[in-house]
Amino acid sequence: MKSVLSVVALAGLSEAALRFGCSTLSIQRLDPVVEPGSIPSAHLHQIVGGNAFNASMQPEDGDPAQKATCTTCTFSEDFSNYWTAVMFYKHQNGSYQRVPIMANDALPPGINGGMTIYYTQQDFFSNGNQKITSFPKGFRMTAGKVTATSKYSKGLKFVCLQNKSTRFPELDEFPTQKCNGIMTVHHFPACWDGKNLDSPDHQSHMYNTVNDAFVNSGACPASHPVRVPQVTYETLWDTAQFNNLPWPTDGSQPFVLSYGDDLGFGTHADYMFGWKDDALQRAMDSSCMFNACENGNPLKSQQPAQMNACTVQPTVDENINGWLSALPGMSIDHGDGVSEESEEYRECIMP
Ligand SMILES: *[C@@H]1O[C@H](CO)[C@@H](O)[C@H](O)[C@H]1NC(C)=O
Ligand SMILES: *[C@@H]1O[C@H](CO)[C@@H](O)[C@H](O)[C@H]1NC(C)=O
Ligand SMILES: *[C@@H]1O[C@H](CO)[C@@H](O)[C@H](O)[C@H]1NC(C)=O
Q: Is residue 58 in contact with ligand 1, taking CB distance under 6 Å?
């Protein structure tokens, strides 16, 4: 039996969990974490969050929360940036069309595209019993690896949606059947080494204890002792509008991620911390759950119309709409499905 003392001690610990929408900020070829300064980066990304987003964004360039004037996220003190690869439909005739992003129906209506972002403590339902430390200013990390050709880690998932509330089963690769939409899920690691804002592979300063389906799989190791929020992205892709177009007859499926991956093992996501002052720490130290954290309890929040009004103009001038003859940035194809630019990219990201 738990002693009264330990119950009291647990009650003093934080229980907050954030789940909120961020509308689309920009869709363009920039990647300030993996390819800082490259205009354009190797492949197309969809980005949400603060409008300080640009090609470089090094820690010494300053605090995004000071530079940004708006954010596409519900929590108006969150000027972080969140991004993933973009999904395309590949026609049998070789043309590509970008798959639009649709809103999550767990969120208020009216949010334009974007993602659902989570900062949880340990898992979806129970919020753990330890201090959760906010990321420091300048912090960034990635999850997943473009070059992976088999399952890379837990927490990188695809869900074949029957409707927008479908959450299972979670797949490690693209579903091969026709779905009413596909959700991609990216869980980031939640154990930090306590020292480095980044690392050469953007991952070794973190340790992964996440499991599938928002379930945590253990304590942080001594090498990475600081428990930070468990960050997760969900993106809902409106694939249904392509279901009546030509479908491969060899058992494969027609969707591809923007770096040419039609299996999905290279699915990846980037995170750049940008909460104002101590807003994230205050939230993590509170006991609010999801939208109960809004309206100053303890976080300032805004409505979808204000979120949607925040955008950044593309720095990269290229067409990403309609039928395209190649994936943006992937035009030099040697017949192996790997473009010259993506080969350079692979070399530059290999640890
Ligand atoms: C990005 O923003 C920083 C800080 O405002 C600025 O110093 C830098 O020149 C910008 N870089 C690009 C490529 O726009
Ligand atoms: C492929 O099919 C689409 C839809 O019919 C069409 O618009 C596009 O021009 C075609 N591409 C090629 C290369 O024929
Ligand atoms: C949505 O799909 C799930 C199965 O994925 C099903 O259990 C649920 O009843 C469906 N909801 C609606 C509103 O149709």
A: no
Q: Is the pTM of this model over 0.85?
A: yes
35 C-alpha to ligand 2 centroid (Å): 32
Quick one: which of 210, 147, 187, 149 has its CA closest to 351?
A: 147
93 touches ligand 2 (CB under 6 Å):
yes
Identity at 8, one-letter amino acid code: V
Q: What are phi and psi of 90, to 5 degrees?
A: -105, 115
Q: What spacing in Å lies between the alpha carbon of 260 and ligand 1's midpoint?
A: 29
| DSSP code, position 188 | P
166 lines ligand 3 (CB under 6 A): yes
Give the up-direction half-sphere exposure of residue 74: CA atoms within 13 A in the CB hemisphere: 22
Q: How many helices (H) and strands (E) does the chain have?
A: 5, 17
Q: How far is the CA of 44 from the centre of ligand 3 (A)?
A: 32
pLDDT at residue 16, as a whole number? 82
86 in Cβ contact with 324 (< 8 Å): no
Asked whether 349 and 34 are in contact (CB, 8 A), the reply is: yes
Banded pLDDT at 347 (limits 50, 70, 90): very low
Quote the DSSP letter at residue 195.
S
C-beta of 54 in contact with ligand 1 (< 6 A): yes
